[in-house]
Tetratricopeptide repeat protein
Amino acid sequence: MNPRQACLACLEREPVALLEAALWIAAEHDRQVEPAACLAALRNVQGQISASLPMLPLSELAQPLLRQLNALGFQQDEYHPIRPHAALLDKVLQRRRGQPLALAIITLELAQRLSIPLEGVAFPGHFLLRVPGADHLLDPCGGRRLYTNDCRELLARQFGPQMPLTAEHLRSASAKQMLQRLSRNLRQLHISNDNHLAALVDAERVMQLGPVQVSDYMTRATLYQRLDCPHAERFDLEHALLLTEDPVQRLKLSERIAKLPSAKRSIH
């Protein structure tokens, strides 16, 4: 079983092995990564946190869990420009620094081991966590509580004041959605670091993990362009053209497709 197959197999388990799946994603980029060893090493962190948690009902332990993780050094990676290891879970476990989604995946793994109810929230630009039924969200980078106005402010910082907060922004994220978002993050980080082959691996995984967007086809098409694969580029541009309803985007896609070499067709 190769790393991609192992990653997908983790999604078929009950409960889903989210952190292990994310570690298999890391193993796609570095065959020396051993997910089982990484998971075993986390037991030490689990023991330290378990011994320090207050005597409270399980439903009230999510924020103390996050605070204990923060105290142990698990914090947002503030290095700029951000590098791929901020989203590769083996590196995040080693360095204790990562993107909010990577920290959330580690937190969700520990919460599951400790029977603490917790779920991921697909907030745009900054992944969040929530205790089911709570009136607030939790920042995986330290455990700060976020109420509705806090979420509006966070959204405005990420995208500007013109973007309104909607119920869609506060929806729970499934394990597959989290892995797809992680793959998109890695794809962008590898592109930013000029590693187009690694980005293509992530782009293909994005396609495999669930419903895709026009931007996913366009991003992969641009990777194929940079890797001088015009026929693969055409395939993705044509699919983007089928999906988009934006007339300006349709025109630009049509013009770009017209400049590509014609697809070879066999005559029988």
The domain at 175-258 is CATH 1.25.40.10 (Serine Threonine Protein Phosphatase 5, Tetratricopeptide repeat).
